């Protein structure tokens, strides 16, 4: 039951899309237990793109059982760390060899520009897997010199070892479908866990293709299981499953709280990477030639659908007009179009639902008195395109200032008192990221110290690296993605004490 796609697109991607997407359990592709399917849509046109198995509780039960068996008795746990690392490395190599195919899948499924997916999403995912492959052989414990007061004269050997946490449920969003899958799979595989992955209903294609490559790379049965479906009927039973030892979630803060409640049943470990409303601060002494395009890219990258988007632009009063005009000029020049067009710089929003949500924020900004210097409405009359938008005349309590819009909309806010800046910048329930632009290195670090954010970029924005931890303060989440912190969060630490 294939869906026709243009013959001009990458042939491997076209043939992958034209197959009906199935669920992966125990390295075998299968239909949903219920036999149900659902469709995804091309956000550039609103037309049907692919048909996929609609997994639900029964499929989650089967996938968790497969992961449990693989973890408790399968080959993965018996392999050496080096063997595990080589499989993850091969997985990365295979992904790299299919860069064009994955960039095409991301452009079609999510809408993002193929030119961006090719240089950012795919290479970052490859690099993350390689970085994590290296960690398999470096997950170490310590020896601890203990001094037990009630055992005078006794000698002990005490040490710790880190063990994989077990079966993990991973629930990912639609904004970076491939990269979010890699961020989750990499550290879990490196630690030796077995996984049930649920991709977002809007963008499951790259995760399914990754599943094929994982088998080709040599992942044993049951180590990676992928269940496509909906949040309420597949994600929720995964988060609540009593045989899942940890759930890792990326998405909205609202659903993050539901995950936490669902996890309470067996007190499974939880990591959450949630929303943001990140401040991006431009001081008057910054290099405006860099700060202005930097501020534009901080919000408009990925159509503004980034949890860390620099969506509140704080500009020192003396340069406010210049910076706002500059960012608006950048916005007006952005080439908005279908992700597959090689010249496109900004694609459509991911879905009809997200499009409506962003448009309703634009409407709320207008009603509450904000003014659009540029943009402010839908672009065209087909697909889910929204104009890159700069809002001014905002007030701190407006919805567009407080809530995550997750679209190409920035609110520009002037400041002149540095202490007022910090309190305004921190005045949100979120704390994911922040940007600072200045030539004064002391001021940069003083500001970085005061901002409540998991990542602070100075004279740059949206710089990611597999080795650099990413995650949120406050309601932006629990735990960290990437870096060795992420690997740690997929391990349990055991203390072993021997009397000699
Ligand atoms: P969600 O938080 O609903 O979706 C993220 C993932 O969670 C998806 O796989 C989704 O499934 C799943 N999910 C949804 N409900 C449940 C549940 N009850 N139990 C378990 N899993 C569930 O994000 P939305 O797509 O609804 O986007 C809404 C807003 O969230 C955006 O406007 C943005 O503000 C924010 N967001 C933040 C992201 C981030 O990176 N921090 C990413 C995406 C969104 P499915 O979609 O398949 O139904």
Explain what the structure shows.
With 500 residues, this protein is of the alpha/beta class. It is 40% helix and 19% strand. The strands form five sheets. Strands 14-15-16-13-12-17-18 form a seven-stranded mixed beta sheet, sandwiched between helices. Strands 9-8-7-10-11-19 form a six-stranded mixed beta sheet, with helices on both faces. Strands 5-6-20 form a three-stranded antiparallel beta sheet, with no helix packed on it. The longest helix is centred in the N-terminal third of the chain and has 22 residues. NADPH dihydro-nicotinamide-adenine-dinucleotide phosphate (NDP) binds next to helix 9, helix 10 and helix 13. The site of NADPH dihydro-nicotinamide-adenine-dinucleotide phosphate has 28 residues, from helix 9, helix 10 and helix 13.
Summed up:
By secondary structure, the protein is α/β, with parallel strands linked by helices. It has helices at 11-18, 57-73, 75-78, 81-97, 99-109, 114-135, 177-191, 205-217, 231-240, 253-263, 288-300, 320-333, 352-368, 399-402, 418-425, 441-450, 483-488; strands spanning 23-25, 28-30, 37-42, 47-53, 143-144, 156-164, 167-171, 194-198, 224-226, 246-250, 269-273, 279-282, 312-316, 371-374, 389-392, 409-415, 433-437, 455-458, 477-478, 491-499.
């Amino acid at each position: 039951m294939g869906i026709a796609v243009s013959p001009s697109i990458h042939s491997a991607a076209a043939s992958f899309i034209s197959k009906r997407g199935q669920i992966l359990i125990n390295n075998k592709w299968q239909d949903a237990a219920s036999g149900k399917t659902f469709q995804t849509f091309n956000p550039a046109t609103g037309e049907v793109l692919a048909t996929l198995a609609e997994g639900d509780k029964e499929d989650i039960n089967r996938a968790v059982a497969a992961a449990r068996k693989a973890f408790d008795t399968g080959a993965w746990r018996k392999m050496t760390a080096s063997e595990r690392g080589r499989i993850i490395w091969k997985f990365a190599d295979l992904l790299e060899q299919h860069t064009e195919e994955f960039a095409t899948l991301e452009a079609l499924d999510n809408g993002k520009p193929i030119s961006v997916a090719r240089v950012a999403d795919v290479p970052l995912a490859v690099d993350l897997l390689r970085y994590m492959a290296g960690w398999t052989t470096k997950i170490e414990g310590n020896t601890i010199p203990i001094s037990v007061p009630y055992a005078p004269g006794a000698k002990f050997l005490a040490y710790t070892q880190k063990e994989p946490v077990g079966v993990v449920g991973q629930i990912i969003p639609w904004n970076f479908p491939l990269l979010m899958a890699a961020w989750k799979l990499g550290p879990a595989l490196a630690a030796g866990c077995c996984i049930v992955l649920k991709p977002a209903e809007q963008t499951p294609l790259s995760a399914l293709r990754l599943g094929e490559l994982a088998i080709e790379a040599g992942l044993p049965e049951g180590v990676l299981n992928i269940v496509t479906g909906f949040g309420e009927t597949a994600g929720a039973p995964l988060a609540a499953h009593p045989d899942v030892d940890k759930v890792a979630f990326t998405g909205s803060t609202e659903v993050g709280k539901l995950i936490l409640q669902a996890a309470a049943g067996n007190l499974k470990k939880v990591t959450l990477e949630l929303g943001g409303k990140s401040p991006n601060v431009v001081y008057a002494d910054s290099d405006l030639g860099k700060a202005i395009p930097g501020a534009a890219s901080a919000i408009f990258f990925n159509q503004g659908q980034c949890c860390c988007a620099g969506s509140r632009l704080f500009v020192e009063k003396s340069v406010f007009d210049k910076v706002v005009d500059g960012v608006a000029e950048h916005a007006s020049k952005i080439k908005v179009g279908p992700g597959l067009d090689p010249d496109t710089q900004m694609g459509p929003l991911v879905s009809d639902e997200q499009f409506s949500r962003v448009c309703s924020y634009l409407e709320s900004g207008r009603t509450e008195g904000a003014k659009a210097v540029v943009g402010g409405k839908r672009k065209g009359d087909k697909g889910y395109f929204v104009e890159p938008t700069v809002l001014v005349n905002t007030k701190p309590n407006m919805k567009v200032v407080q809530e995550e819009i997750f679209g190409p909309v920035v609110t520009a806010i002037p400041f002149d008192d540095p202490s007022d800046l910090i309190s305004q910048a921190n005045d949100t329930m979120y704390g994911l990221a922040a940007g600072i632009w200045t030539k004064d290195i002391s001021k940069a670090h003083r500001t970085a110290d005061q901002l409540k954010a998991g990542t602070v970029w100075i004279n740059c924005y949206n710089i990611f690296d597999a080795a650099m931890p990413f995650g949120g303060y406050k309601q932006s989440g629990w735990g960290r993605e990437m870096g060795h912190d992420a690997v740690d969060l997929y391990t349990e630490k055991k203390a072993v004490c021997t009397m000699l």
